[in-house]
Fold this sequence. Notes:
Blueprint: H1 3-9, E1 14-18, E2 21-25, E3 29-31, H2 32-38, E4 45-49, E5 58-60, E6 65-67, E7 74-80, E8 85-89, E9 92-96, E10 100-102, H3 103-111, E11 120-127, E12 135-138, E13 143-145, E14 151-158
Parallel strand pairs: 1-7, 8-14
Antiparallel strand pairs: 1-2, 3-6, 4-5, 4-7, 8-9, 10-13, 11-12, 11-14
Amino acid sequence: MSQEHEIKEHGHTLNLVINGKEYHWDKQYITGAEIRHLGSIPREDEIFLKIKEPWKDELVNDETQIDLARPGIEHFFSKEKPTQIAIIVNGREKLWKEKEISFEQVIALAFGNYVENANTVFTVTFKGGPEQNPQGSMVKGDKVYVKNKMIFNVTATDKS
């Protein structure tokens, strides 16, 4: 008799933790899709099985089957998938992976690096942004949310 049948016949449940909350499961195996459903994890988020250091956490796809009958309680967590979008900086397409971009990061994308210089004034304007900041200008220390195909114009003016 398989362990899975033993678990069902004897009414045993296995425990698992999803994003810090404990759940009970009556089968030996659980799929990524079942974890997603059980933990109400959005489709666009990734699911990981927590693995002890120094090893890396394991990405769990919807089809992946995890054996819950192994020693210990399996811990799963979700996080947003890293997204890569294209933003336009001074007419050139640049790939960006974060939700926000800073004034200094835009300048570095435009000119290769950002060097603070008392004789240089940078002007950054943008348009085509998300609803939080559809258009505007940035000054040192500012951050704005980005979206695909957002346009930034950066100029450097020498004060000397």
